[in-house]
Write a structure and sequence with these properties.
- The longest helix is centred in the middle third of the chain and has 24 residues.
- The protein has 18 helices and 22 strands.
- The strands form four sheets. It has a seven-stranded parallel beta sheet with strand order 8-7-6-9-10-11-12, with helices on both faces.
- By secondary structure, it is α/β, with parallel strands linked by helices.
- The site of 2-oxo-3-(phosphonooxy)propanoic acid has 11 residues, from loops.
- 1,4-dihydronicotinamide adenine dinucleotide binds next to helix 5 and helix 7.
Length: 528
């Protein structure tokens, strides 16, 4: 797997990937044009807030499987274009939270006490004590817009400064705010009542120009405004006007509509604007964190494991990831078995999650199942991102249900796949990370770990059939490592299911010979 690192990321992250056997090329500072030129050679791309990963880059990335954002905001990546192509986009939530919150607090203090301006003045040999009279934070109301990871940490620190904290975030629970003693208010209430306003929302269509002319007009006189989130969330022209009119006492700005900003921009010339060059995440700690988080997910994908922090897939907590991991493998393998047994004909997929599994986010498992099914007909380029849209495109009906009650297992995954008048039922469970088992195929009890070369066949329950199979494989020098024969009920006769675990895959000729043996009804080979 070849990884292109197109921004400067922590050395530890590069070393970690190389140690796992990944080929890592470092090209920090690469232009968008150069990126378009060379992306076709890579399976993975890592960026920070630049360069832009456009639809064109994605289109040209013929081998691209994953884009890693060593940070949080993914507004420089065309996530929709990536999803359409089945490319996973991962980021590093949490890795730079504290660093960015600390910078926001730093900018608040710098703006309130004019620290950078005072520094400049002293260094110029002046002693202007009257000029640098500021305002205290104690007792002031701070309005946090976006009480997510960074907003929460800013709120916590603001409390330590004896500030009254109000917040606006329509997607956060009342209890999360309460645990900090933060009052959730409406957007207008926040705008009208805060002495300091700080934004910590992602840049989306909804948040672009969230604070413009109208909002500045309604703010308290002498308000301090901080933007450590993204340029354009606070409209820059409106901010310049509000500063010039005296409405805004001071502003702290780390991010800009275009980066780097035009050196002639009026914003940079205003005395009471404290500026930094998008350094919210620029600490040793944050960079190590985000670099390693991204490296881990690239490595996960390399080893065929699901990723932790996909932006275009549901996110999972570490605990949930651990619990679901064996079921992900199980679901994918069940898909493979079903597709092989049905000869690639499937139109309807029914999944039932029973027991503890029913309480989990199972959307990953349904995707894994579809991945296994679709791979049989479309080859290995299906992944957890593309599986669902491709299934929809092909008119495959997917039905999911959850039943919390189970009889004998903590969790049970049941799958029913139908196509061209045939169907197959599979049930499986897990007893640990690598101990996942298929316990039933159709009406037959099985209990096996689906790993290795398997031949799954149906045969007549009569003497000699199994012996003939053994002779055939022996004659062809294929060692049978394990065998499960499932009888339905306890009476002899009828049709039996046979699972053969072999050390080497059988050739087509051997498989055909097996299919023709007296008593054998059908036989398919599957590498699981
Ligand atoms: N200056 C810098 O170097 C850095 C900037 N950032 C920026 O900060 C943003 C926030 O980062 P995190 O706190 O880690 O993300 P997060 O996802 O934990 O928090 C974002 C919060 O915004 C809320 N939100 C979304 N839309 C909203 C709306 N229309 N109105 C109000 N609230 C809304 C969400 O509910 C969520 O609670 C990132 O998206 C990124 O753009 C992040 C890290 C470093
Ligand atoms: O993580 C984020 O969203 C950031 O804005 C940090 O950007 P950077 O990785 O420092 O270019």
């Amino acid at each position: 797997m070849k990884v292109l690192v197109a921004s400067s990321i922590a050395r530890e992250a590069i070393d970690r990937m190389r140690k796992e056997g990944l080929v890592v090329d470092e090209r920090p500072g690469i232009s968008e044009e150069e990126l378009e030129e060379i992306i076709e050679n890579y399976d993975a791309l890592i960026v920070r807030s630049s360069p832009k990963v456009t639809a064109r880059v994605i289109e040209r990335g013929r081998r691209l499987k994953i884009i890693g954002r060593a940070g949080v905001g993914v507004d420089n990546i065309d996530v929709n274009a990536a999803t359409q192509k089945g490319i996973i986009v991962v980021n590093a939530p949490g890795g730079n939270t504290v660093s960015t919150a600390e910078l926001a607090i730093g900018l608040i203090l710098a703006a309130a006490r004019k620290i950078p301006q005072a520094d400049r003045s002293v260094k110029e040999g002046k002693w202007e004590r009257k000029k640098f009279v500021g305002v205290e934070l104690r007792g002031k109301t701070i309005g946090v817009i976006g009480l997510g990871r960074i907003g929460y940490e800013v709120a916590k620190r603001a409390k330590a400064f004896d500030m009254n904290v109000i917040a606006y975030d329509p997607y956060i629970s009342e209890s999360k705010a309460k645990e900090l003693g933060v009052k959730l208010v409406s957007f207008d209430e926040l705008i009208e009542n805060a002495d300091i306003i700080t934004v910590h929302v992602p840049k989306t269509k909804e948040t672009e120009n969230l604070i413009g002319e109208r909002e500045f007009e309604r703010m308290k006189d002498g308000v301090i405004v901080i933007n450590c989130a993204r340029g354009g969330i606070i409209n820059e022209d409106a901010l310049i006007r509000a500063i010039k009119s005296g409405k805004v006492y001071a502003a702290g700005v780390d991010v800009y509509s275009t980066e780097p900003p035009d050196p002639n921009s009026e914003l940079l010339k205003l005395e009471n604007v404290v500026t930094t060059p998008h350094i919210g995440a620029s600490t040793k700690e944050a960079q190590t964190n985000v670099g390693l988080i991204i490296a881990e997910d690239i490595i996960n994908l390399f080893h065929g494991y699901p990723v932790r922090n996909a932006v275009n897939l549901p996110s999972l907590s570490a605990e949930e990831f651990e619990y679901l991991m064996p079921y992900l493998k199980l679901a994918e393998k069940m898909g493979k078995i079903a597709a092989a047994r049905l000869g690639g004909n499937f139109e309807k997929v029914k999944v039932t999650y029973r027991g503890k599994l029913a309480e989990r986010d199972t959307s990953y498992l349904s995707r894994a199942l579809l991945k296994g099914l679709l791979e049989y007909i479309l080859g290995p380029n299906i992944n957890l991102v593309s599986a669902m849209p491709i299934a929809k495109e092909r008119g495959i009906e997917v039905e999911e249900s959850k039943i919390e009650k189970t009889d004998s297992y903590e969790s049970l995954l049941e799958v029913n796949v139908e196509g061209r008048g045939r169907s197959i039922y599979l049930a499986g469970t897990s007893f640990g990370r690598d101990d996942y088992r298929i316990i039933k195929i159709d009406k037959y009890k099985t209990d096996f770990v689906p790993k290795g070369h398997y031949i799954i066949s149906l045969h007549e329950d009569k003497p000699g059939v199994i012996g003939r199979v053994g002779t055939l494989f022996g004659k062809n020098n294929i060692n049978i490592a394990g065998m499960i024969v499932g009888r339905y009920g306890d009476k002899p006769g009828g049709i039996q299911l046979m699972l053969l675990l072999v050390d080497d895959p059988p050739s087509e000729e051997v498989l055909e010979e097996m299919q023709k043996l007296d008593g054998i009804i059908d036989a398919v080979y599957i590498h699981l």
